[in-house]
Amino acid sequence: MRLEIVIRYTGFVLLFNSLFLFISALISLISGDSAFVPLLFSAVVAVLIGVFPIIFVPPVENIQNDEGLMIVVSGWLFSFLIGTLPYIIWGGPFTFTNAWFESVSGFTTTGSSILTNIEALPMGILVWRSFTHWIGGIGIVVFMLAVALPSGQVAMILYRNEISSLAVENFQYRTKKTLQILLVVYFGLTVLETICLILAGMNFFEATTHSFATVATGGFSCRNNSIAYFNSPLIEIIIIVFMILSGIHFGLIFVAITDNFKKIWYSPIVRYYIGAMIVGIILVSASIWNDIYKSFWDSVRFAAFQIISVGTSTGFATADTNIWPGFSKLILIFFSLQCACAGSTSGGIKVDRILILWKSFTTQIFKMKHPKAVVTSKLGGTVIESALMEASVLYIVLYLCVVLTGSLILTLTGVDTMSAFSGTVAAMGNVGPGFGQVSSLSNFNMLPDAAKWVLSIVMLLGRLEIFGLMMFLFYRVIR
Amino acid sequence: MKIRTKIMLGFLILVGMLAIAGSISVYELKKIGSSVQSLLDDNYRSINAAKDMIEALEREDSGMLLLLSGKWKEGRDTIQSANKNFIQALEIAENNLTVKGEKAFVEQIQEDYKKYRKMWDQPIVGTIYENNLNWYLEDVHEAFKEVKASVQKLMSVNDKVMYETASGLKNRAHQAIMPGIIAILSALVFALLFNFFVNIYFVNPILSITHSIDDFLSSNKPVSLKVNTKDELADLAHSVSELVALVKLDRKKAKS
Question: Taking a C-beta distance cutoff of 8 angstroms, is the pair B152, B50 a contact?
C-alpha cells in the first residue's frame, strides 16, 4: 500500500471541507458573530494541511482497493478532526471530547448533540454544524468525487469503498453516472425542501439548516426543542415527506422522476419500508392514545413523526418519547436498528438486509422440508446470490454484537442500562436520540467523557458499515 | 514542480500557518487588553463610586443621629463632610454612564437623595424633631434606605456587566490560546509529513540511483532508474542514464 497516495487524497478531502468552512466563516462575518475567527482559522489550517501532500505527491492513474479503503477511512477521520477545530477554538461548552463528539455526530449524520443551549451558539457555528451533516450525508469522499474529482479508475475504487456494499450492488449505472445521480437527487431534495419550509413559515436560515439535516438524515436542529419548537403540522408534514424520500435508494428516486413515478412502488424494498412504517405508526398511535395524548389525531401526529424520524435515521423530535409506554419504546428501538434503504443517506442495518434475512430464513425452512431441492431466493425479480445472503446475515450478527458490546462498555462508565442500550443503538444506526438520559428532547452532555468516545467509535462503525473501520484498524493483521 | 519550489512551498505553508496563528493570538490578546481597560474604566469606576456613596450615606445617617441627640456641631460637621463625598461620588457616576440603562439609575439616586437631603437640611436641634425617634424611624431612615437601595441597584448593574465582561474575557483568552496550540500541533504533523515526503521523493531516489551506479560499476548490472516525479531528480536520473550509456559504449569500444 502506498501511504503517500492515501495522504494525497486525504488532502483533497481536507480541501473539500475547507470550502464549507470558508462559507461558514463568510456567513459568520456577515452576521457579525463571534465564530468568524475560529471558522476562518480552521479553514486556513484545512487548506494548508490539504495542499501540502498535493504539492509533493504526483497524481496517479490508478489505486489499489486497500488504498481506496484507507483513503475513505482516513478521509472520515481527518474530516472529524478538522470539524472539531471551529468548536474547540470557539470554546463555550466545547471541550475537546465534546467538540469531537459533535463533529463525529455531525459528519456521520447521527445528530446526537452535547449542547444544552443550541440557540446560544453563533450563526457561523450553527451553519458549520449543519454543513457537517450535509457533507457527511452521501459520504464525504463520494460527495468530493461527484463535485471535484474527475472520474476514472481512482473514482471507481473510492466510490466502491465509500458507499454501502448493498447500494453498490443496486446501482445499475457506471460510476460517473451514479455519482451524477446521487448529486442531482441530493441537491434537488435539499433545494426543494428548503423552498417548502420557507413557504411553511420558517426563515431562510432555519429552512436551510433543517433541509441539510433532513436530506442527510442527520437530525441537528438550530432550535433547542428540535422540530417541536415550531409546533406546526404543516412543517412536520413537509419534513416527514422529505425524511421518507431521503430514506429511499437515490437511484430509484432518479428513475421515478425521470421515467415513471410508479416505479418506486415496484420495488419490494420500498413497499416493505413504507409498509413497516405504517404498521409502526398504527401500533405506536394505539399505544400512546389516551395514556399520553387525549386526542387521537395528536397520537397519530406525534407517532408518525417519531417513527419516520427514527425509521429513516434522521432523529428530529416533536415529542418527548421518554414518557411513552415501553411497547412504543421497543417499536422505536426496532426502527432504530432497521432504519431505511441502502443507497440512501440513512444508516442502520437497512431494510434491504432485513428482507434478505427474511428470504434466507424462508429458504432455510423450505430446504428443511425439501432437502434435495435447488432453491433460488429472489427479491423483486432479482436472484439473491448466496454470498450476498451470507454477507447480510453476517453483517446483522456483527451489527448486534457491536451494539451489545457498546452497551456493555457504556454501562461500565456508569451510564444506566436503558440509556446505554438505546444510546448505542442510536449511535450505531446514526439515528441520534435514544431513551433515558439521551432521549429525544434531551442531549448527550450528561454522559461521561469515556462514554462519548465509545459512542463516537460506534457512530463511525455504523457509518462505515463495520468492515471499513475494522479493515483500517486491523490492516496489518488482515493482510 | 522543482524540488526547490516544493521545499519552499512546504516551508511557506508552515510559516503561513504560524504567522496566522500568531496574528490571531496577538489580535485576541490586544482585544483582551482593551477589554480589561474598559472593564476598569467603565464598570470598576462606577462600582467604586457606588461604594463611596453608600459609605457617605452611612456617615450622613450617623450625623443625623447626632443632630437628633442635640449635638449640633458634631452632627453638622459629619453630615457636611459626608455630603461632599457623596456629591463627588455621584458626579463620577454621572460622568461614567457606560452601561445601558445606567442613566436611569443615576437619576433615581439624584431624586431619592434630594428627598433625603431635605430631612437634614432643615433645623433639627432645638426644634420638634430633636429627640424625635419616631420621626427618624418613619421618615428619615426610610428615605435613607431608599437612596441606599438606588445606589445598590447602580452597583449591581455594573457588577453584572463586569461579570459578563470577565466571562467573555475567559473565552477570549481561550480563543487566543487555541490557534497557537493548533498551529503547534499542525507544525508537528507538517514536520512528520515533510520528513516522510523527503524520504520518499528525495532520499530514496538518490539512494536508488547510488545503488544502481554502484552495482553497475562493481558487477556491470544494468542500471534501472525509476523516478516518478518531474523535478531535478528526474533530470539527474536522465543524465545518469545517459552517462551510463556512454560508459557502456566506451567499455564496448575498449573490448573490441
Answer: yes
